[in-house]
C-alpha cells in the first residue's frame, strides 16, 4: 500500500486511500514501539525509519485538511523524542522532520486545538526531560538538536498565540523550559566554535595580516586606538558567551594561554637572545591578549554554582594565579624586556597585562581559596617598579604595578601588617614620588593610604599614625612648592575616598586639616590668584568627601567663598565655589542664609549668562528653597525681619520664574522640578505670597510653553501639564472663571469671539482629563491665531 501511494498519479485516488494507509503505517510503528517497551528486544528500526520517511514525504505535499488523525501526529512525535534517539538517530530525525513538515504546511484539522495541545504536551515532556537530564542534551546529535530547535520555532510561531486561550495550556511553564533549553543547548559546540572564532580573530598567530592593519597609535575621542577598541569589543563578546558557560569558556582560553605562557617561559630561559623571531613576537603579543581576556573573565568564572563545576572553576583560577604570580616574581628579578632588543615592547605588554590580570583576580582571592602568602607575594613583584632607579622603569609597567598594589590594598585580607610589606615604598612616598608620572603617583598614594587605613581598623592605632604621617608629608610642601604643585595630588586623593568608611574619613579629615587651613588662607590672597583653579578644585573635593567631618571649618570656609566670589574670578571657579556652598546648605548647620542669598542675587545671577554658570546658580537657589524653607517663615521674629525675609523669598521666586523663560531646556527642567518639590514638601502653591503674587504669572508662562510647537520644551510637556494642574488645583473655579479669560485676553491675534469661545473651559478636575482639555485649548488657540494671521475669521471649533 505504501508503494501504491507513492506511485499513484491521481490525487483523488491517493487521498481516498489515505485512511487505510495511515492506519497501516501507524500499526507498524506502534508495534515496534510496543515491542521496545515490553520486551526490550532489538527493534526493526529499518521499518520504522521507512514509515517515518514515507510520512514525512506525504506530509510535504498532500492536502492535509482532513486526512491526518491527531493520534498519528502523537505517534510520529514519539519517534522524534530523545527516548528513541538513543536507539536510532535516523528514526528520531525522521520523526521530528515529519512533525516539522506538518507545521510548515500550517496543518489545522477540525480538532486543531486538541492536536496543538497534544503537541504542546509532547514538547513540554521532551523539554523537561532534556533540562532535568543534561547529559542527554550534551550527548545528543547536533543534527537532532537543530531539528528540535526548528520544531520549537515553528510550534511557537504558529500555535502559541492560539494555545494561550486554552485553560490546559501553561504558558509560563512552557516558556520557562523553552528558555532554559535555548541557553543550555547553546553551551555546546556552537558556543565553543564562536569563542574559538573570536580568539582566532584577536591572535596574531591566526590573523596576523588583518591585525597588523589596525592603527595602534592614533587615539579617538575616548582615548583609545583602533586596535584597543577592536580588542575591547572582542573580549566583551567572549565575556557575553562566558555568561552562559563560564567554566567551559575560561578553560578554552586558559588552554591557549598555557601554550603561549610556555613559549614565554622558554624565551625567558634564552636570556640575552637578540635574534628577531616573528613567531615568538606573535606568541608574546597573543599571550598579552589572552592574559587580558582571563582577567576580564574573573567575575564571570565564579558564577558557577553547581558543586563540582564550582570546585573546578576555583581550581582553574588557582592554576592561573599561581603561574602568573610565579612569572611576575621571576620578571621582577630578570627584567626580560631589558634583555631583548627585538621583543622589548611585546614583553612589556605581557608584563603589564599580567599585573592587570592579578589586580582583577585579587578581588576573588578569598572565593578561590588562594593562600594569603601567594597574594602578599605579589607585593614583592610589583614594588621594584615603583622605586627610583638609575635606569627609569617603563611608565606602562609602573602604572600597572601601582594598580596591582591598589587592588591588593582594597581586596585582600592580610595575615601580617600590610604596611610592613611596602616599607621601602612607604618611606619613599613620604620623601617624594616625583620619579613616577603624576597619574601613577596618585594611584600609589591611594594604595598606601588604603593599606594604612586597613591596618587602623584593627584598633591598634598604628595605622592611624601611618596614615597621618603620609598626609602630613604630602601636605608639607604646600607653603614652599605652592598650591599648583601640591594640591592636585591631594584633590585626587580626596575624590578617591569619597565612598570610604566613616572611620577612615575621620582619620583623613584630621590628617588634611592643616593643608585645608593653609589653602583657605591662600584663597584669600591676591598673590595666589593664579592658583584659584587648583584651590577651588581642592575645596570642592574636600566638601564632597569630608564635609561631615571638618566641623566649623566648613562654615568658616563658606564665608570665605562668599567673599571670593564677590571679587570676580573665572566662571569655572565660580561654579566650584557655588557647588561647595550648595553642599554646605544641604548639610545644615551654620551656613548664613542671608549672605548666601546676597551672593546669589547680587553677584552670581548677573554672571549667569551661559548654561555652565546658570545651572549651578539655580541649583544653589533650589537647595536654599528646599532645605532652608523655614528660614523664610520663622516662628518668632520682629515685623521688620519678617518683611525682609518675605522680600528675599519674592526675589528668589522671581528668579525661578525668569529662568522658565530661558531657552536652556535643562535650566527649564531644573526649575520645574524645584517648583514641584517645593509644592510637594512645603505646599508652595497654597502659600498666600505665591497665590496672590506669583500663581498667575507662573501659569501664564507654563501655558505659553504648551503653545510652543516643537523645540526642546515639547519633551517636557507632561511635566509642564502636571505643574499647571497642581497650580490650578489651588482653586479650580478661580482658574476657569478668572484666570483663563484674563490669560486669553492677553494673547495677541485672538478676537473677542475667539476669547468667548475658548473661555468655556470644561469643569473636569482629574489630572488625565484636565491635561487633555488644556492641550485641546492651546491647540485651539494656535488654530484661531493662524486663521487671524491669514486674515480669516475662524469658525467655532467643535
From TrEMBL:
The keyword Transferase does not apply. GO terms for molecular function: nuclear export signal receptor activity. It is found in: Cytoplasm; Nucleus. Signal peptide: none annotated. GO terms for cellular component: cytoplasm; nucleus. GO terms for biological process: protein export from nucleus. Keywords: Cytoplasm, Nucleus, Protein transport, Transport. Belongs to the exportin family. This is Exportin-6. It comes from Eumeta variegata (Bagworm moth). The lineage of its organism: Eukaryota, Metazoa, Ecdysozoa, Arthropoda, Hexapoda.
